[in-house]
Write a structure and sequence with these properties.
single chain, alpha+beta, Enolase-like, domain 1, 5-stranded antiparallel beta sheet, 12 helices, 15 strands, binds flavin-adenine dinucleotide
């Protein structure tokens, strides 16, 4: 067995120094809810682990100039409990509500959920529906923002270089008239990995009962969370009623048909998405 080094940088300067030592075998540790399982099963044998959780510079949720910033080691529980997120990025708060168990939510970090790049990662459709950008730092201490879609390289694969780490995520604050939600279907009702997830973020004019803008993202029905751009266009200017709800559900079913053609789960997911769509409409429009 080769030796394992563990580094616990306390700030971003120390993090950049630690990243200088990273090799393709090295691993970055967030809450460990994915990584520790792989370690325990001996599926990975890293030479170096960089533990992010001692770097308290990366634990924050804040709003500046109309943008919301979340640090990489912020936990799912902290995001769920944040008044700011509940008010201005509710779909993300809802995704965190439906995420794993209390124990998992208390440990799992948003940086880990992004970097893990699971097609079923629950924060990812919500972040897509918020047009999120991911903040990445390298071993020179240089930070840059990347669109979330550029970070998600495929199932459980991110596009970061060996000497890079996720340090945060940002998106525009979506206060009213934006309203948003997240709905998911798993194999059980709690502590379940998503089989379908849906984030709906719309500009809703209560006076006219009309949707004026829409950002719709799906998870667990493709290699990575993605936006349903055509459906977004079709929702614009539409009055909210039962017909629209039924059409929304049908259109989502078509999106899934296009996304996973030939997949064994397609017949099930094509039907199941309709229930998820109805859940989202019920939560947003009480219908
Ligand atoms: C019982 C159980 C239930 C679960 N339920 C859900 C669920 O409902 N929804 C869901 O989405 N997930 C779920 N998960 C999966 C897991 O909890 C999430 O993916 C979680 O967000 C991972 O975050 P973490 O901080 O624990 O990451 P870790 O396990 O520490 O790391 C995950 C991966 O990301 C990398 N990484 C971590 N942080 C960074 C960083 N800052 N920069 C670069 N790379 C980094 C690691 O090297 C590793 O490859 C569940 C897991 C378990 C065990």
């Amino acid at each position: 067995m080769s030796s394992l080094q563990v580094l616990t940088p306390k700030n971003n300067t120390e993090l950049a120094e630690a990243l200088k030592q990273a090799t393709p075998k090295s691993k970055i540790l967030g809450g460990g809810t994915d990584l520790v399982i792989l370690l325990n099963k001996d599926e990975i044998e890293p030479d170096l682990i960089i533990d992010m959780t001692a770097n308290k510079e990366l634990n924050y949720i804040k709003e500046e100039d109309g943008d919301i910033y979340i640090g990489a080691i912020t936990t799912i529980t902290e995001i769920h409990d944040s008044e700011l997120i509940n008010e201005k990025a509710r779909c993300l708060a809802k995704a965190c509500e439906k995420f794993g168990s209390t124990q998992i939510r208390n440990k799992a970090t948003i940086g880990g959920n992004i970097a893990n790049a699971s097609p079923a990662g629950d924060t990812l459709p919500a972040l897509k529906a918020l047009d999120a950008e991911v903040s990445v730092i390298n071993s020179k201490g240089e930070a840059r923002f990347l669109p979330l879609g550029d970070v998600l390289a495929g199932p459980n694969k991110n596009s970061l270089n060996v000497d890079e780490a996720v340090i945060g995520v940002k998106f525009s604050a979506h206060a009213k008239p934006w309203i948003s939600t997240f709905a998911k279907l798993g194999t059980r009702t709690a502590v379940t990995i998503s089989r379908i997830s849906l984030a709906v973020n719309v500009v809703y004019d209560e006076a006219t009962n009309t949707i004026n803008d829409a950002k719709i993202a799906l998870g667990a029905v493709g290699k990575a969370a993605f936006r349903a751009a055509k459906l977004e266009e079709e929702l614009k200017g539409k009055v909210v009623n039962k017909e629209l709800r039924a059409k929304f559900a049908e259109k989502l079913s078509e999106v899934i048909q296009e996304s996973i053609p030939g997949r064994a789960s397609l017949p099930y997911k094509k039907e199941a998405i309709k229930g998820v769509a109805y859940q989202a409409f019920e939560d947003l429009f009480s219908m």
